[in-house]
Each structure stands twice: as C-alpha cells, then as structure tokens.
Write a structure and sequence with these properties.
alpha+beta, D-Maltodextrin-Binding Protein, domain 2, Dipeptide-binding Protein, domain 1, Dipeptide-binding Protein, domain 3, seven-stranded mixed sheet, four-stranded mixed sheet, 17 helices, globular
C-alpha cells in the first residue's frame, strides 16, 4: 500500500486492465436482484460503483490472507465498514489524514521505542465505544495467525512489538524492540492496525459466549478460526449479525456469492464525519469490460471506467453527463520469477539472464501503442507516478533499455550459442567467466512458462510482444492465461515453499500498490520470507537495505534499497497504468480528487441536478 507492495501492500488488477479487444459478456446482477433492478433507495438516492471485470468481493473479515488480499475486498468493501486506526489520503494528497483517523497521531517516548496512541470518540453500530481493547484484540489475533496475514514480514509488525497494552479505555501503549524511524512506524506499522469489536467478535462459535479468548495464543487461534470460517461463508454476509457491528459509514445489506456484487447502506450509528448523504451504494461486478462499458453508456453506472479501446467514446459519455478522470495510484506492475522452482532456479538465478530478459521488454512502445499513452514506464519498485518524494534518480532512467541485440550479447558472453527464432543453448557450461553458470548443463535451452491473468487484452498484447522479442533471442516463453484468482492461488502456494509442488515459472500477480504500508520500503515483496514474496527471492544485501529504511528516516536509505532492487531484477519491470480511466456522473458531487491510495469516500457524495440514468432516483 504506499505501501498493497509494500512493506505491506495489496495485489491489484492491472491498471487500464480494460484495454484492447473486449470479451463479450453480460452485466451481473447483485443480491436478490437489487442491483439489477436499480430501484431508488430512500434518502439521498443510489450510487452504482463499477468493480473491475472478472473480479469481485469475496472476503469480509479485515485480517486478510494473501489469497484474499485485494483492493476489491479492502478499499472497495472492508474500509467502508471497518475503519483502520489511521487513515491515509487527504484530498488527493499522499499523506496521513488525522481528521478521518480513529486515533490521534502517536506520541513517541523513550527515544522512539514507545508509541502512545489516544483514540478519538468513535462507536460501533451496537452502541459500544471503539476502545483500546479493540486495538489489542486485533493485535492478539494477528500475533496468533500472522502466517495467514498477507502483510506479514518476519521481524516487522507484530514481531517487533515487545509489549502492547491498553493503558486506559482510550489509550494504547506499544513498546518496540528498538527505536525505528517514526515516519516508518506510523506509515508502515500503525497503518496496518484495524480495531475489531472485541465485545461482539471475541467468541469461538456462533452460539458461544463472548469472552477474552484472544488473551492467550490458543484462544486467539480459536477466535480467528471461527471468524475466518464465518467470512468464508459468503452467502451470509448480509444476514450474519457479526458483520453488522461496524464503525465505518456503511454496512452490508445485500450480497450475491455467485456474482460477488454487494449492496451497502449508511450505518445510522456512524460517529464520524461526514455522515453519508446517499441512500445506498451498489458495488457492481461485471463479466467483462464490454459489459461495464455498455452499462456505463446506458446510464446504469454512476462511477465507472472507460475501457481504452472505447476511448473514442469519451465525447459521447461527456454529452451523457459523465466526467473523465484518470485515476493514478502509487502502484507498480511486474512479472515475478519463481526462485523456489528447482527446475528453473539454475537459469533465473543468473543475473545476466534476468538482465537479458528485461532488455526484451519494450516499455515505451507498450505505453505508446498498447496503453494509448496513459501508461508509465517503471524501472524499479518505487512508482514514478503519482509524483512522490521516494523515487530515486536511478529509477527515473531505464537501466535496461529495449534491445534484442543487447540481450543476445549478454547470452553469448555467458556461454550460450544464440539461435534467433530457434533454441538458444548452453555450449560452455561451468561457473567461470564466459560460462553459463551454476547448475546449467551443456545443451540446456531457455524455455519458460508465463502465467498471466486472463480477460485483460492490454496485458495479453504486452506479453505477446515480449514473447515475440524473446524468440528473436532464442528464448521460448509460453503464455498461460487463467482467471486472476487462479493466478494468485497458484503463485501464493509457493510462498515459503521448499520447491515441492511449486511449478509455476513466471507469473503476473497483478500490480502492487503501497497500502497500508504507505512507505514503499518493500519488505513484504522482496525480503526473505516476506508475506507476499511469491517469487521467494532471498538476498542478504537487500534485507539489510530494507532494514535500513525501517531504522532511518533519511532518503538515502530508501535510495539505496530501491536502486539495488531495480538493478538486481528479482522481477521484470513492466509498464504501470492508471488504476482506471474513471467516468463519473457529473451530478455526483464530492468524488474528486481521486485518492492516490485507492480509497474512495461515498460518505461525502451527494446528488445534484440531472443524472445519466433518468428517472431512477
């Protein structure tokens, strides 16, 4: 999250994943036909918000495993009901927002080792206050089940907290094992905490009594098992009393587990500000970008996105009453190598081979011809857009520019006979200068499988171009396309694996954006054992660099970290795009500016004047 990657971050669909020739499909209806009927809601009317094609909501419990770690589950859904301790994003600016946070900014003492947090006056929907005990409840569950948390980095939160206690009902004290950068503690540690309603959720069964089970590791594991089981039963999201105890501005009243649509309405007990003025929020899923665009053009969607292949229709949508606004967030896109796959490890462990493959990715051409100029070339782990103070000068230039000739030259210089459009093969095995490297036998070829998300024509076009360029260097890349959940479940299965059953080779896990680790120090993605280090890259120099970003607020530490990762290529860098090309009903007020952390604020929205969908409200 600026921070999905992260000390912690979340996986996202590829931005502008709605590009290229579309796949036909139908608009899916929501729970009980509520979304399909588009019936007006009492109060301030209904707003329909479009989710990406082939994705939806499938997890409600805000302690999320890697398999469910998505923007649809997080920013689109959970954050509207369960507020994080600290809110990031302030009128389009990438910074902490004290006005929307559940707590005042932390006070540090003992040289920075102790953070004292005082809660603001918020209440749960059952009338009980949000307390320090609710913060400790979250921490206890996390400590017991950290392996099931997508943001976990060994040695970071909660491992580096040696003491956590509720000093008063409204004050929490956290003592760390050493003094860290205060900026990092706020942006990448405290940012991860989501208070949970201990008085309603501290139980081990639906019929069991409320207790203090979380105060022991065994009890905390039992509570987590219960809550995770309830969250896995998606058909009860709208009826399970657990999920109605919220502290955010909305609560869920409709959910379709087949289509993964949801209906939310204002929480009448919301104690924050502003209070919602709309009457209902429909989160609508689609089978394809074509279906979403058809719904947008017919006025069925109030906040949607324009597929790039339909960019010529921008003027039509403007005449229909929509405002066009690209949504840039702090994320980056990449292809992950699977270093845990013993079959290909001898190949991808060679830096020269990774360098050669990066030379085969023509980012400027992809941006110009496939992304229609809306994409941004990326050369390292810190995004270049939106503008931010973290990206180094090194990342602003392409260390591995597109060049098939350079790729061939690198291979030839390391013992390979290059056969353009054939099979480049190792003719000088060994570990010396001019030889192929450790574990590579004579006659070995370079054949790799690339697992990517289906239904995203722009991504397909980029990967086909990469495949074609690679073949000119004698490298064979097989494209495999699967739904995003299949891609993720396949890749995530390799985290912390020993190699057994870990067969994928290259994968596009969808972009990573930095939240709720808003300081892009990269531990979750690239540290040894990182919670979303799906490629299992492990490098001692990188771990030391990551640690330095946690201890020092100096930009020099961040520069050293990102420059090393950018040069070492644990992943292949591919262009980044806006999250989407938003089309927003002009009469829907309060939607702009769009948030760089992907948050959105329907509690601030209201209708004024005519709408694209005549007569619905």
């Amino acid at each position: 999250m600026i921070g999905s990657d992260i000390v912690r971050g979340r996986r996202l669909r590829p931005g502008l994943g709605l590009l290229g020739a579309a796949v036909a499909g139908l608009l899916l209806s929501a729970c009980g036909g509520a979304v399909a009927s588009r019936a007006p809601a009492a109060g301030g009317g209904t707003v329909s918000f479009a989710m990406p094609p082939a994705t939806g909501i499938n997890y409600i419990f805000p302690l999320v495993s890697a398999a469910n770690c998505s923007s649809e589950n997080g920013e689109n859904f959970q954050y509207l009901m369960y507020r994080p301790l600290y809110w990031f994003g302030d009128h389009g600016v990438a910074k902490v927002n004290p006005q929307l946070s559940l707590a005042q900014l932390p006070r540090f003492s003992q040289g920075g080792r102790v953070a004292t947090i005082h809660l603001n006056a918020y209440r749960w929907a059952d009338g009980q206050p949000v307390t320090a005990r609710d913060v400790i409840f979250w921490i206890n569950l996390l400590k017991a089940e950290k392996a099931n948390w997508c943001s976990y980095v060994p040695g970071a939160f909660p491992d580096n907290v040696v003491s956590d206690r509720a000093v008063t009902p409204t004050t929490v004290s956290l003592t760390f094992n050493r003094a860290y950068s205060r900026y990092w503690v706020l942006y990448n540690e405290l940012s991860q905490i989501t208070p949970l309603p201990q008085q309603a959720w501290d139980r081990t069964s639906r019929s069991g009594r409320i207790g203090n089970y979380d105060m022991t590791p065994k009890g905390a594991r039992a509570v987590y098992t219960f809550l995770n089981g309830q969250a896995s039963t998606t058909s009860t999201y709208a009826t399970n009393p657990l999920w109605q105890v919220v502290d955010g501005p909305f609560h869920v009243t409709g959910y379709n587990p087949t289509t993964e649509d949801a209906v939310l309405v204002p929480n009448p007990h919301y104690s924050g500000s502003p209070r919602p003025r709309i009457g209902r929020l429909d989160l609508v899923a689609f089978t394809s970008d074509t279906a979403e665009f058809d719904a947008l053009r017919s006025g069925q969607i109030d906040y949607g996105y324009l597929p790039l292949q339909d960019l010529s229709q921008r003027g039509v949508l403007a005449r229909l009453g929509y405002t066009f606004q690209p949504w840039h967030i702090l994320q980056f896109s990449y292809l992950a190598f699977n270093f845990a796959n013993r079959q290909i490890a001898p190949l991808i462990n060679q830096l020269y081979l990774r360098q050669a493959m990066q030379h085969l990715i023509d980012q400027p051409a992809y941006v110009r011809h496939i992304d229609r100029g809306f994409g941004v070339s990326e050369f390292g782990p810190v995004p270049l857009q939106p503008a931010n103070p973290f990206a180094s000068a090194y990342e602003h230039h392409n260390a591995y520019p597109y060049s098939i000739a350079l790729a061939r030259r690198l291979l030839a210089a390391h013992g390979w006979t290059v056969v353009p459009n054939g099979f480049t093969h190792c003719t000088h095995p060994g570990t010396g200068a001019g030889e192929c490297g450790t574990g590579i036998r004579a006659g070995a070829t370079i054949t790799l499988s690339n697992l990517i998300q289906s239904g995203l024509p722009s991504l397909t076009a980029e990967m086909e171009a990469f495949q074609s360029a690679a073949l000119e260097a004698g490298i064979h890349i097989e494209l495999r396309q699967e739904p995003i959940n299949t891609v993720l479940s396949t890749a995530v299965a390799c985290i912390r694996a020993t190699g057994t059953g870990c067969h994928w080779e290259i994968a596009d896990p969808a972009p990573w954006f930095y939240a709720p680790d808003f300081y892009p120090s990269g531990g979750t993605l690239f540290a040894c054992g990182g919670g979303y280090n799906i490629g299992s890259w492990c490098n001692a120099t990188n771990d030391a660099n990551v640690l330095a970003t946690h201890l020092s607020s100096s930009i020099a530490a961040m520069t050293r970290y990102q420059n090393y990762v950018a040069a070492q290529l644990p992943v292949l860098w591919i262009p980044n795009q806006p999250w989407q090309l938003s089309e927003i009903a002009r009469s829907l007020r309060g939607t702009l500016p769009q948030d760089p952390y992907l948050n959105y604020y329907p509690e601030s929205w209201s209708w004024s004047g005519p709408t694209p969908r005549v007569g619905r409200r």
